[in-house]
Queue: 3 jobs
Job 1
Amino acid sequence: MPELPEVETVKKGLIKLAKNASIADVWVSSKKLRFPVSAKKLKSVVGLPILGVSRRAKYLLFDLGDIVLINHLGMTGTWRELKDAYLHDHVKIQLNTNKVMVYNDPRRFGFFSISKKVEIDQNIFLKHLGPEPFEEAFTADYLLKKCFHKKAPIKNLIMDQKVVVGVGNIYASEALFLSKIRPTRMGEKLKPIEAELLVENIKVVLQKAIVAGGSYIRDFKSIEGAASFQHQFSVYDKEGEPCVVCQKPIQRIVQAGRASFF
């Protein structure tokens, strides 16, 4: 599933594609995504300028003036500029620049929603989200407060979007490894110095992944091509390989249905 670095990479590509453009037309496939896409509702944005594209957590936000078009990529959603038609193309946005932005989603877990800009903070998909990892609000003290008396594993806590957004399974494993924290450690056992390390390493790992264009896992690809952060993994998906620090075999366990590596 695309996480923060992958969505950030897609956002950058969409900004280039939609620069100085407005929406001339919208086409919607009859096949349903996670939630039904109303062609009539999406066509209501025709004629509106695309003032910008931003990201909140794993959501893409198209600024259309008083309206915000929200898109979640689900597990396999991708955007591209139309060159040829493909199976699983679900939404096509014709721009007044003669370019066409195409949303493709083979597994159809992605979705679109429209919100008034003045109501965006209370949007049903966004209002519960924690701080962005690069915001000033995401500090060691903040993380310690969120972990206080929590008997859940630290990996599960930093992957909780109500605690901090965008720290997916890959990046949680990598950040914990750099911080020398076992993923099974209970949140309540986190020490202040460890919280400082973890907050810093979450930012380091995510920033490196953004620079690399994300991680090319299964179906993900950016609007501009393949990603490459997977070549920098220290532990993720390296079960049995020697650790880069101590040379002992990397272990794999399952936590909350997700693989953890340490």
Job 2
Amino acid sequence: MKYKSLHNQHGFTLVQAIFILVVLALLGAAMVKLLGGQTATATMAVQQAKAYQAARSGLEWGAKRASSGYSCSDSFDIDGFHVVVSCQMDTIYEGTTSSYPVYRISANASFGSFGSSDYISRTVQMKVGFP
């Protein structure tokens, strides 16, 4: 009888093997999806850093223009980022020996179109005075 019960279990190892293969396939698919998400996150982090640096470049450009007495509001493109710089005289500082203007400069760098999955935008501001 012992031998008869062993003969009735043919194919049980096949069921186990198929179950293990299905579980491993699902784990593999989940890992591929997770890796794709991490790659997209890293790419967006690089783009955000580029947007920040493009906006900082706009601030520096605006400060240089303001210090030279030129209009410091303009827009331009840097490496695929559209940078809009706005500048206005905020106050005139009244010192003991002289007075000078203080400018409020704002720069916005954007990439892509609003609402798209690759849209990035960064805005930075500063105040600067030139005695």
Job 3
Amino acid sequence: MANPSPSTESSSSLLACCQSIQDGPWRLIQLRGKGMPEDWLRERDVDLLGTRKDIDLLVRQVKIWVMEGRCHLRVTCRRQKKVELRLLSLDGTQCLVLDLWIYLTQIDRGRRLISYENALGPIQITESSIQRWPLRIELAVYIHHLVCKKKVLSDPETTERLEVYRARCLTEMESGLADMIETLLETCRIPRKLEGHMLRILEDTFSLQTKSRHRTWVDLWQTIFLMPPRRLRLLSIMGCDGVGKSALIDNLVSQDPDSFRAFKGKHLYRKSLIYKLAVIFIRPLLFQGREKFDETLAFVVYLRACLRLSLFLPRMGQGCLLIDRNILDFLYLERKTDQPRFSRFLGLSQWFGCRIPTIHCVLPYANLQMRKKEMTRQGHCAYDEAMFKQFTERVPTDYTLFYNGGSLEESRIALMQVIRSMFGKS
């Protein structure tokens, strides 16, 4: 199926978000590339350095834009050093990728790093939310980025960026740097002497920190048991009751049964023998309905769902399995009341349960009320806020906030584009 063309309204909205990022209350350093909002949309990604506080502030602002129906949001994070933030146009056809570095770890072939606090030294602070280093410093960091990532200098994107730096050098009367870049473009290699020269520039400017080579047992646990799989085979589609997640899943499966299959999230635990025995022998003694009983057994329910989820991964065939819940839903209690809350067993989520990619469907309460009258405004807002906080602040994570305020067909097409981007397809 051919990709739909981007709508003018979606493109304008995403461009306005780019402009707002450059005018916000956070302070970030742009590491390379052009600085205009329209240029950001043409870049494969935009690298920014900041504190975790400023990055969280930016992510929270983008959440507000999603709730206003201006874009979709995706946050991925596999390590503490970097958060990848994607802003997707409402129709899913355009994407702005922000690589938000907390520690810039590509100096001296990955042996040294720069934190935001150390990076402020050579900058003349302006009122803009996005700061830039002097040309010489920025170029030195870029050279070390190319070396650390083993970039091929003949690659069109790298060549174009070096040409932009060469033009800037000529404009700013840095003829020596311009000649150096011209030599790099001709030879397509970075000599050790030049690498060392650029390192000395950085050492004279920053207090470079030595990167630790030792991984803690927590890091190893996350990598082995929690890390989202790089190949998309399982996908959670979640949201508060009435948001339309089941309708979206059914529509996706009916339109493309070869690529998608549906699975009821509650079957992750309700099909188990232990749960069935508990329903037969324990539930009658507690005089509880099925949902209340599940909340009472939240500890067992969550661990059983984690086990079933882990068994899915090695047995997945072709296509993608769409699960209409996330396992974190099983630790969320009294969701239809004004004061929903997480179970006291929430800490289990820090250690158990593979963090498969998750799409969280949201829409304004006025729309939700027409579909699910038993959901209260306070309960609806509390659910979205609690889940957003859990998914965006944990590491590792792969979380998408999807605005589901359009028609079913519009939402299906947009969601298909979002999922295609997860598969790495344009």
